[in-house]
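retry 2 of 3: previous attempt timed out while embedding magnesium ion. Reduced batch size to 1 and resubmitted. Inputs unchanged:
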Amino acid sequence: MMEGRTGWWETVIGLEVHAQVVSKAKLFSGAATQFGAEPNTQVSPVDAAFPGMLPVINRFCVEQAVKTGLALDAEIRLESVFDRKNYFYPDLPPGYQISQYQQPVVGRGKVALDMPDGTTREIGITRLHLEQDAGKSLHDQHPILSYVDLNRAGIALMEIVSEPDLRSAEEAGIYLRKLRSILRYLGTCDGNMEEGSLRCDCNVSVRRPGEPYGTRCEIKNLNSIRHVMQAIEYEARRQIDIIEEGGTIAQQTRLFDAGRNITRPMRSKEEAHDYRYFPDPDLSPLVLDPEWVTRMRVQLPELPDTKKARFVSAYGLSPDDAAVLVAEKETALYFERVAAGRDPKAAANWVMGDLFGALNRLGVGIEQSPVSAEQLGSLMDLIANGTLSGRLAKEVFAEMVATGADPGSIVEAKGLRQVTDSGAIEAAIDTVLAAHADKVAEYRAGRDKLYGFFVGQIMRATQGKANPALVNELLREKLTGESGGAR
Ligand code: ADP
Ligand code: MG
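retry 2 succeeded.
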């Protein structure tokens, strides 16, 4: 909800996400798809629309779309059709884009969002269809000419359209993160927004709560979640201001200007009939074998929602912690390796606390972690078997991050093994108490706070290596025993 001059407004958002299919070849040609290649080195005659060239569907891309549809709990349509969407663009050589329109390969589905207040929200998926990407016009290479790079022309995209179910910029952000997480679990799209493999068009309208949907504007081609959220905030505010001034919203396609954090008009919204869609005569309908679809369904990996539920039930983690650990497939895998045969809550704390902290400081993902899951596991074992205290373990962990060495060898090399020999600890306690006889007397007279001081001195005397539990036990014995009284 957003407050305007005249009361409250509800923002209504539907997203169209373009997810580039992870595939070595394009949707209808064998040309390569590698990101960042020299311009126009990955273009087949089909992509360049040479006369007489015919498209041949890439089975692998269809498989990725079906897998994604299954993961979105969506209807898989056994017969779908590729249409021609006609429009002129310098980077679209045939003058049309091949796209599924009225008969997409995937129909209605849904995505569950974990909301910050612990509740779950279900967002409807309208459809997922396959289409070709266009090439790229380069306007910054020459003072007065534009260049065209066709490397991207013909790459397979999955367009994933949501119902207008989202109600705030924040929800849109959660939705996109969840969708990206699902795509990455599946491996059907790498979700890399900087490289443009995940792009988003945002449809935004506002209404009074309970009223019918208002007229929407579509903000094109946003390539970061932050921009999506900023664009929605700005656009909703803009529409509220216009309506409150007595104006009406014109349905429009708009662009987000990240530098100025505003949206501005690009063109008035075209209608579907303007594109003169018709079934591509070069392609027969796409017909799927139901048994093949069933096999795809059976082969789906464990997805974030299921994994989260399992982390809660099998490891006893809180739903919040489980959500953090399953957001990235690699993190979940890492956690499970650490937790195997160990205390899962302690494992979760190490991963989400010290490890995430270290990765953040280094600016790397968990795949590049200097500390492997096996190494973190051994560190936990050294705590469990009494070799390391929690404090020493933190020191060893810092050394592991810095050097990549095994915890065992760090303990040996630095002599960090904790002292559990009660004779040695007792000796240290005696020395400390003898050196501070005045404080011992004060303590015995009732200044309880001095207890912490003694512990500090003893830890210092043992270079922090004394087992804290033993120190406590022996120190209490000494302080009470020698006083002769019961404290
Ligand atoms: P088009 O193909 O013209 O972009 P669609 O009917 O496919 O139009 O809808 C595109 C997106 O617009 C969908 O994500 C849908 O949820 C969203 N949408 C539809 N109506 C509204 C509305 N009133 N406010 C916000 N979003 C909307
Ligand atoms: Mg659209």
